[in-house]
Write a structure and sequence with these properties.
371 residues, TIM Barrel, 2 domains, nine-stranded mixed β-sheet, 15 strands, 37% helix, globular
């Protein structure tokens, strides 16, 4: 299965926890960026007809309907099997939802992150739980029933009670897909940088500790399962038949092309990435030079495991694929992080929480196949 990812790195405001290459920019840059995106799509020699399209960001729901239709008309293959737009709650109307359907969108991913007002205000989000409820009703009234909600475990001021309340909202809203991410602490977000420097801004001192965040995640696994949302990937939960078709390709090493700033691609044994910033992307386009930042050969022997093992079903335990990593796999099984079952190898429940320690075993093994 092949797919297309379109990056729209523009937002109404930059959330404190966000570590993506996105932000608030002048309107002129947005206009020029959409022109550059259209140009990049027009210049593409398509090696296949894509089955999925994913518009991520940033906040691609802010693209006006005319520009969105103009972009998607350049992607071959409609109607696509799945076409997703990421959306920020607080901006969805019946007219906008209708325009999405007209353009070929059939799935909406809502960046809710929390249903607790104190947590939302602390990170810069402006919506409320009732707004999310009403906009989901609007989406459904326009025929958009394939809806996903994002939650973050570990936001400032998050407590066991507030996390439980957010999960209660998931049950009431009865959506078919949920993504749960544990807060990432790194220098690419304002909140992460503040935590690393032991600062006080952005409510950094109110971030739950790692043990609490792990407990929140584990509670989500059980509660979402009780709602019929089974974990099929480390961060993703769905009813049967509502798994993200587009995202599955990343973990199954299927080809995709990315367009726009910081977009990644994988096709024909190569991986490549566009320049990171929107301004650099537009500047290169205007000069008529490639927007590519760099490329490298894919490493299927490694990627088969450190991407495939993100799926709860794991990967087939083929002897020839395991051989270069035999010692590492044996140790991880002994430590209770991996297990063999039904001819497959997969993460244990504990292994999910320590997945980064697992994945490092499959990156650049030494010649004797142990690291």
């Amino acid at each position: 299965m092949s797919g297309v990812y379109i990056s729209y790195p523009f937002c109404a405001q930059k959330c404190t926890y966000c570590n993506f290459a996105s932000g608030v920019y002048p309107a002129r840059l947005v206009e020029d960026y959409l022109d550059a995106l259209a140009g990049e799509l027009d210049a593409t020699e398509w090696p296949w007809k894509p089955e999925t399209v994913y518009l991520g960001g940033g906040t691609p729901s802010r693209i006006d309907p005319v520009s969105l239709g103009r972009l998607l008309s350049r992607v071959p293959g409609p109607p696509w099997r799945e076409a997703t737009v990421e959306a920020a709650p607080g901006s969805i109307s019946a007219a906008l939802a209708d325009a999405w359907v007209e353009a070929g969108i059939n799935r909406v991913s809502l960046g809710v992150q929390s249903f607790a007002e104190a947590e939302l205000r602390g990170t810069g989000r402006r919506h409320t739980a009732p707004v999310v409820r009403d906009e989901i009703s609007t989406l459904r009234s326009q025929g958009l029933h394939n809806i996903s909600i994002d939650l973050i475990a570990g936001l400032p001021r998050q407590t066991a009670a507030s996390w439980r309340a957010s999960l209660d909202w998931i049950g009431r809203l009865d959506v078919p897909h949920v993504s749960v991410y544990m807060l990432e602490v790194d220098e690419d977000s304002r909140l992460g940088l503040e935590i690393l420097s032991s600062g006080q801004r952005y409510s950094a001192a109110d971030v739950p500790d790692e043990a609490a965040i792990a407990d929140f995640y584990e509670e989500a696994v059980d509660r979402l399962d009780s709602f019929g949302l089974r974990r099929y990937e480390i961060s993703n939960f769905a009813r049967s038949g509502f798994e993200s078709i587009h995202n599955l390709k990343y973990w199954r090493l299927e080809p995709y092309l990315g367009f726009g700033a910081d977009a990644h691609s994988c096709c024909g044994g190569l991986r490549w990435q566009n320049v990171e910033s929107a301004a650099a992307y537009v500047e290169r386009f205007k000069r008529g030079v490639p927007v590519l930042a760099g490329s490298a050969p894919a490493t299927p022997a490694e990627e088969y495991f450190f991407l495939g093992l993100r799926q709860m079903a794991g990967v087939e335990a083929e002897a020839e694929k395991i051989a270069p990593f035999r010692e590492g796999v044996a140790r991880l099984v002994e430590e209770g992080l991996l297990e063999f079952a039904g001819g497959r190898i997969r993460l244990t429940r504990r292994g999910v929480l320590l997945s980064n320690e697992v994945f490092v075993e499959f990156i650049e093994p030494c010649p004797k196949s142990s690291i």
